[in-house]
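Here is the promised in-class demo. Please do not try to memorize the tokens; focus on the logic of going from shape to residues.
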């Protein structure tokens, strides 16, 4: 039998659906486009193109791995974030739309007339560098410091920075949250997408998250707030007067995180913003002073 692009897509979509693979059509399209080195749209423009034996063999291998739950992003090594094509691997969390809400919140707040100029940005727990790179691109006059405890994550972030031509303005630092930073209010913006899933909830996560994404980037301790507590206790010490901190949080955590920030008495205002599903996903605070 000669397998054309369309025939293979239809067969694989049905095969994935029968075996409970999430987003079966999208998974089939992403994997086949990756094998053929083309865009998903082009699969349908070239629907009657037959595949070679080598292409079929590569595609079959990826299909078998996807059946085990391995995310398509790790299979292809790519994920889009804020229109940036990022390299990803099992060393880093896969960037998600919820984190784009964090970025949108920051950009909206710092573009207000009363916001101070942004010269230095800090991204704590940078992973693939998604937030750091997007902010570097959106704020061409700013320099960005990106911290992560994982050397593998920092290597990937550097590769992504080089691919998107922001490496000269990105300073990558290995360490645990604010630990490696010099004391002082040097940043106008601090962002973080920390681990916030309660430990007891980890076993009930979808297998493609639970079994493949790094636990270090997921596990927020017994109540999900372990890292967020540490962030709340540290970040104001590095935030310039009038500066902004914005944190991604889990379901139902926004009030507790706002309270943690308010308890420092360092902020003039706090707020939160929902994600696309209506969950309060981002907590922000503005440092006191001018």
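The designed amino acids, position by position:
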């Amino acid at each position: 039998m000669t397998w054309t692009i369309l025939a293979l897509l239809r067969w694989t979509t049905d095969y994935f659906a029968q075996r409970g693979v999430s987003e079966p059509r999208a998974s089939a399209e992403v994997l086949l486009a990756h094998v053929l080195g083309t865009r998903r749209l082009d699969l349908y423009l070239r629907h009657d193109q037959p595949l070679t034996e080598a292409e079929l063999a590569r595609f079959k291998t990826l299909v078998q791995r996807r059946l085990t739950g391995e995310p398509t992003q790790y299979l292809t090594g790519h994920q889009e974030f804020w229109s940036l094509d990022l390299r990803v691997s099992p060393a880093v969390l896969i960037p998600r739309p919820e984190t784009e809400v964090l970025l949108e919140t920051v950009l909206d707040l710092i573009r207000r007339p009363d916001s101070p100029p942004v010269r230095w940005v800090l991204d704590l727990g940078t992973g693939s560098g998604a937030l750091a790179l997007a902010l570097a691109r959106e704020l061409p006059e700013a320099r960005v410091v990106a911290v992560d405890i994982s050397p593998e994550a920092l290597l990937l972030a550097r590769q992504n920075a080089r691919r998107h031509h922001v490496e000269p303005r990105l300073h990558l630092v290995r360490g645990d949250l604010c630990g490696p930073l010099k004391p002082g209010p040097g940043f106008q913006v601090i962002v973080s997408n920390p681990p916030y899933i309660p430990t007891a909830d980890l076993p009930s996560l979808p297998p493609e998250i639970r079994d493949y994404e790094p636990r270090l980037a997921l596990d927020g301790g017994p109540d999900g707030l372990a890292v967020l507590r540490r962030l709340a206790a540290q970040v104001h010490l590095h935030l310039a007067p009038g500066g902004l901190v914005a944190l991604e949080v889990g379901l139902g955590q926004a009030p507790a995180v706002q309270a943690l920030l308010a308890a420092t008495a360092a902020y003039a205002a706090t707020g939160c913003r929902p994600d696309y599903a209506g969950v309060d996903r981002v907590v922000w605070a503005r440092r006191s002073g001018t």
